[in-house]
Amino acid sequence: MDAKHYDLVVIGSGPAGEKGAAQAAYFGRKVALIEKEPALGGAAANTGTLPSKTLRETALYLSGFRQRGLHAVHFSLKEQITPRDFLYRERLVVQTERARIVDNLKRHNVDLYTGFASFVDAHTVAVAPRHSPSAHLHADKILIATGSHPFHPANFPFHDSRVYDSDTILNIREIPATMLVAGGGVIGCEYACMFAALGIKVTLVEGRDRLLGFIDAEVSHALADGMRAVGVEFYMNDGIEQIETGEVITAKLKSGKVLKTHSLLAATGRSGNTQNMGLEAIGLQPDSRGNLKVNASFQTALPHIYAVGDVVGFPALAATSMEQARVAMVHAFDLKYKSGVANILPYGIYTIPEVSMAGETEESLAKAGVPYVVGRARYAQNARGQIIGDKDGFLKLLFREEDMKLLGVVVIGEQASELVHVGLTALLTQSGADLFIQTCFNYPTLTELYKYATYDALGQKAKRRKAGK
After folding, report:
1. pLDDT at residue 399, rounded to an integer
2. What pLDDT score does 73 carry?
3. What kind of fold does domain 353-468 have according to CATH?
4. CATH 3.50.50.60 domain span(s) along the chain
């Protein structure tokens, strides 16, 4: 079978695949993109990033959460929320994003192919549409951006319509009275919060001793407190051992505790989409979770084949996946545009309250033996924080004690994922306390927190010096 030739074939149309294809095409390369699903966008547009964040906004609106504390204004949840109420805005956002992706790829003259991609040889990919003959594409370079899918524990009865994963939860048939969430990672915490905000009694089971082990411990504990405030109940250092289905779902925990629930959400991690692609036949061996090993330029063991995004594992974020793809294509075609992904990446966790961070944590600095100073500023003492009614949020800055260079920033509270970027920029420019002291911030804004957190850190440093004399 004759194969059509391209400079680049991209497998997958999520954030990584789209941006990788557009990057190469922008610089004049002939590019083809293969997507097995009828709709473009991958998990980010269709089942993950955008849908879940849109549902969070919907939950906050329907619950009146953001109107808390406004004098003489009372908002309460509608007596009966339907899936249509909950999912309406999500559907609109997803449709708009799909259209944007199609337009972007057309604008860059990227050829689109629909079907499952598998390797014929190291330079040839077969595209097999459903119920149709396959086509062969030959390429000098290949970018694998196939994303991931929810991991299914063997003891979870996914045949039961009340048992969901992070993809199928978007097809929820009814708003249940109770929900059990298995897993206290990012996905589990985000969905636990939004369903609790809707008035659902949510219980979360997590095998570790705290939520989101990669974030600052103080903020992790504050997040747990915030989630309890919206009604989430926790069983930490525990796990689900056995599940029985009947009129309700019964889950027996390792601790012996028995929980009964109307619905179950498995948020137990994700696995790379590499099955049945013929990778082993060309010398590429995914790990037990379906992920591919890559070098700093995102090359696999075959130098002309690159892999980016969820399929290479942590951090598996849309933002980092886009950057990985751009860097991979710059390397693949020697575009001399950018040499690597930024050495400091932001993390945004869309829980209630929202959490975001960049750089070091107290734990990482203590482990490295770096003397540091902490500065905090609370939303409750900030004019904008008072206006929006967020009484519990705070900004935390970590400075190197010696020269007050900024080393880390973490925010918990309203708009945390936006607010963190001021600190991220300071980290990338290796700035310190003087930047925030000299800057004039708009008033009233949450960004002012940076100035007062810095004052707090300088005050803490002065106290240490005084105590040491």
Report:
1. 98
2. 46
3. Enolase-like; domain 1 (3.30.390)
4. 4-149+271-332, 163-268
Sequence-ordered list of residues with C-beta below 8 angstroms from that of 77, at least 6 positions apart, any chain: 62, 63, 64, 198, 199
| 415 sits in which H/E element | none
Q: How many helices (H) and strands (E) does the chain have?
A: 12, 22
Q: In whole angstroms, give the CA distance from residue 341 to residue 344.
A: 9
Query: Three-state DSSP class for 305?
Result: strand
Q: What is the pLDDT of residue 65?
A: 64
Phi, psi angles (nearest 5°) of residue 5:
-100, 140
pLDDT at residue 67 greater than cutoff 60 = no
Q: What is the largest CA-CA distance in the chain?
A: 82
Chain centroid, CA 21 distance in Å: 22
Q: Establish how many alpha carbons lie within 13 A of residue 438's alpha carbon, considering only the half-sphere containing its beta carbon.
A: 5
Structurally, at CATH architecture level, domain 163-268 sits in 3-Layer(bba) Sandwich (3.50)
Q: In the sheet where 258-261 sits, what is the strand order?
A: 240-245, 249-253, 258-261
Class of domain 4-149+271-332: alpha beta
